[in-house]
């Protein structure tokens, strides 16, 4: 159902277009700011409906403001994503063919990994098997820097993970391309990269690190929600709300 | 950061967005063609604007869904190009997106314009009626300047731009480049050196701002060594309020803006963007 929009919606959308992704707290503040600027009533807790109205008008352009969880801090984020293609061709205006091939290979490495990370060494090595124009080491490093800058990848200590924005936007592509391999969180049912796995060989369910923190919070003896075996991994702390990391 | 630039940046953040009160200001524009508009005319000559009856006939052959789909593609294309602040050439639009829907081109543009206004609060403007180039300009009103809780990435360079636009405006619309460089040097923004915030200042001013149509950088004939002059660019004309530039100048010189009577008159002339309420869609669409 297509809805009428006001200037507050438009300002919100313009800001989302400029920043790409924002966390829930900032999204709420932005919503309030947009309503106040254009003198429309702002109803707290109606942010999702506000966004829904915008989405109903964005849908014909295959654009959406979608919500997703950061695997780093467990916070909810809103990202403006392109739904037009299920492939990576959405990035074609910014990256060359061989750059995209390397990005695909990086995603492959991350999906196949246990910890949802790919080391820069592994990524560099994967250039050996490229079918399009091969990339030199310096080019690969430069590309990885750009991918981080453009908020597709995150880097820490030489290891690369998919950014929250990337996961939100690429989820359909990743699910389609890696049907059998891709991990799904048992708690929230979204795709999972940085997660813990049940050690029971006949169980093996996966749970996002932040979902683990929330699910097992306060439990003396953590047990797998599927097979009830003892959950042996370290239970992370639930991250505080004011964590402002942008992913 | 220098205090003057701080003021400029705050002022720029307030008035960066301006609303167009009329659609076809470009037809009054008597701009000289820029140095980078080259052979586009040749390609564009292959596309002639269809007549109303041609459009009607074209529409009859297509389903509403097909027309909507093509319109959506045009909107996406323009958004991507505009993100990089590159004007969209009609020839490219027809060649890469519209393609065999060219018979209904005016209808597609009309619908795309409506989508830009209703969904994005943007105005699709033809800045060059001769070479048929479009840009997107912000259509949203800013009745009361207030800081946004979310920091938009574009602001720092806007402050620099604002200072330059201010100088040009106060000097009657055109200044020799040396004046700009001297003023920037006084603000400790040296065009010869890499600036912490703006990087290569000379490149930002003479290349980036010019490509984005915020400034014009034109060679002064018969100068030896070669000298250039600066003017406001088409995008600046549409997005930046001269009235606010005057307010900003007033703050710097601690004068009432009205003391510059000529500029004040120019800034508040009817064709300049002013803070009138925005279009009907906004005020009547309060659907809560």
Automatic annotation (TrEMBL), chain A:
EC numbers for this chain: 2.3.2.27
Domain of life: Eukaryota
Family label: Belongs to the NSE1 family.
Catalytic activity, reaction form: S-ubiquitinyl-[E2 ubiquitin-conjugating enzyme]-L-cysteine + [acceptor protein]-L-lysine = [E2 ubiquitin-conjugating enzyme]-L-cysteine + N(6)-ubiquitinyl-[acceptor protein]-L-lysine
Chief localisation class: nucleus
CDD domains: RING-CH-C4HC3_NSE1
Location within or outside the cell: Chromosome, Telomere; Nucleus
Positions of the Non-structural maintenance of chromosomes element 1 RING C4HC3-type domain: 185-227
Enzyme class, broadest EC rank: transferase
Free-text function comment from the UniProt entry: RING-type zinc finger-containing E3 ubiquitin ligase that assembles with melanoma antigen protein (MAGE) to catalyze the direct transfer of ubiquitin from E2 ubiquitin-conjugating enzyme to a specific substrate. Involved in maintenance of genome integrity, DNA damage response and DNA repair.
Keyword terms of this UniProt record: Chromosome, DNA damage, DNA recombination, DNA repair, Metal-binding, Nucleus, Telomere, Transferase, Ubl conjugation pathway, Zinc, Zinc-finger
Subunit structure: Component of the Smc5-Smc6 complex.
Name used for this protein in its record: Non-structural maintenance of chromosomes element 1 homolog
One matching Pfam family: SMC_Nse1
UniProtKB/TrEMBL annotation, chain B:
Comp. bias intervals (Polar residues): 46-56
Gene3D superfamilies assigned to the protein according to its UniProt record, in alphabetical order: MAGE homology domain, winged helix WH1 motif, MAGE homology domain, winged helix WH2 motif
Chain segments carrying region Disordered: 18-57, 257-288
Biased composition (Low complexity): 21-35, 269-288
Residue ranges constituting the MAGE domain according to the UniProt record: 67-267
Family matches, as InterPro entries: MAGE, MAGE_WH1, MAGE_WH2, MHD_dom
The protein's name: MAGE domain-containing protein
Organism expressing this protein natively: Ataeniobius toweri
């Amino acid at each position: 159902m297509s809805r009428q929009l006001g200037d507050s919606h438009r300002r919100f959308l313009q800001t989302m277009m400029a920043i790409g992704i924002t966390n829930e707290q900032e999204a709420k503040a932005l919503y309030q700011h947009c309503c106040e600027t254009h003198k429309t009533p702002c109803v707290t807790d109606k942010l999702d409906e506000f966004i829904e109205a915008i989405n109903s008008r964005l849908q014909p352009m295959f654009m959406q403001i979608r919500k997703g969880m950061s695997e780093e801090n467990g916070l909810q984020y809103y990202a403006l994503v392109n739904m037009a293609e299920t492939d990576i061709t959405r990035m074609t205006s910014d990256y060359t063919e061989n750059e995209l091939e390397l990005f695909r290979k990086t995603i492959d490495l991350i999906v196949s990994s246990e910890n949802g990370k790919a080391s820069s060494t592994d990524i560099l090595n994967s250039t050996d098997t490229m079918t399009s124009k091969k990339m030199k080491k310096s080019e690969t490093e430069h590309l990885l820097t750009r991918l981080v800058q453009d908020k597709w990848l995150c880097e820490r200590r030489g290891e690369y993970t998919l950014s929250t924005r990337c996961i939100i936007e690429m989820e359909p592509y990743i699910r389609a391309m890696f049907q059998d391999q891709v991990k799904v969180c048992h708690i929230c049912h979204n795709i999972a990269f940085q997660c813990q796995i049940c050690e029971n060989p006949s169980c093996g369910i996966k749970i996002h690190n932040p979902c683990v923190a929330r699910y097992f919070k306060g439990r003396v003896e953590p047990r797998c929600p599927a097979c009830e075996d003892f959950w042996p991994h370290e239970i992370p702390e639930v991250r505080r709300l004011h964590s402002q990391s942008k992913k | 950061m220098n205090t003057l630039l701080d003021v400029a940046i705050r002022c720029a953040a307030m008035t960066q967005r301006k609303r167009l009160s009329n659609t076809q200001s470009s037809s009054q524009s008597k701009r000289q063609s820029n140095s980078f508009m080259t052979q586009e005319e040749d390609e564009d000559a292959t596309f002639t604007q269809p007549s109303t009856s041609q459009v009607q006939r074209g529409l009859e052959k297509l389903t509403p869904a097909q027309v909507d789909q093509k319109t959506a593609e045009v909107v996406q294309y323009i958004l991507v190009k505009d993100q990089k602040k590159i004007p969209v050439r009609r020839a490219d639009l027809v060649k890469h997106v519209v393609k065999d829907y060219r018979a209904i081109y005016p209808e597609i543009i009309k619908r795309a314009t409506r989508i830009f206004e209703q969904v994005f609060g943007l105005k699709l403007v033809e800045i060059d009626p001769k070479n048929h180039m479009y840009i997107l300009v912000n259509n949203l009103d800013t009745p009361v300047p207030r800081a946004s809780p979310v920091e938009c990435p574009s602001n720092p360079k806007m402050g620099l731009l604002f200072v330059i636009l201010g100088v040009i405006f106060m000097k009657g619309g055109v200044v020799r480049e040396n004046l700009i460089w001297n003023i920037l040097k006084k603000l400790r923004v040296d065009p010869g050196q890499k600036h912490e915030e703006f990087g290569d200042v000379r490149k930002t001013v003479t290349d980036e701002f010019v490509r984005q149509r915020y400034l014009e950088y034109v060679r002064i004939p018969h100068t030896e060594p070669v000298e250039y002059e600066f003017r406001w660019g088409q995008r600046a004309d549409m997005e930046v309020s001269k009235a606010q530039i005057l307010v900003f100048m007033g703050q710097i010189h601690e004068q009432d803006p009205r003391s510059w009577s000529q500029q004040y008159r120019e800034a508040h002339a009817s064709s300049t963007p002013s803070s009138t309420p925005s279009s009907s869609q906004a005020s009547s669409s309060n659907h809560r």
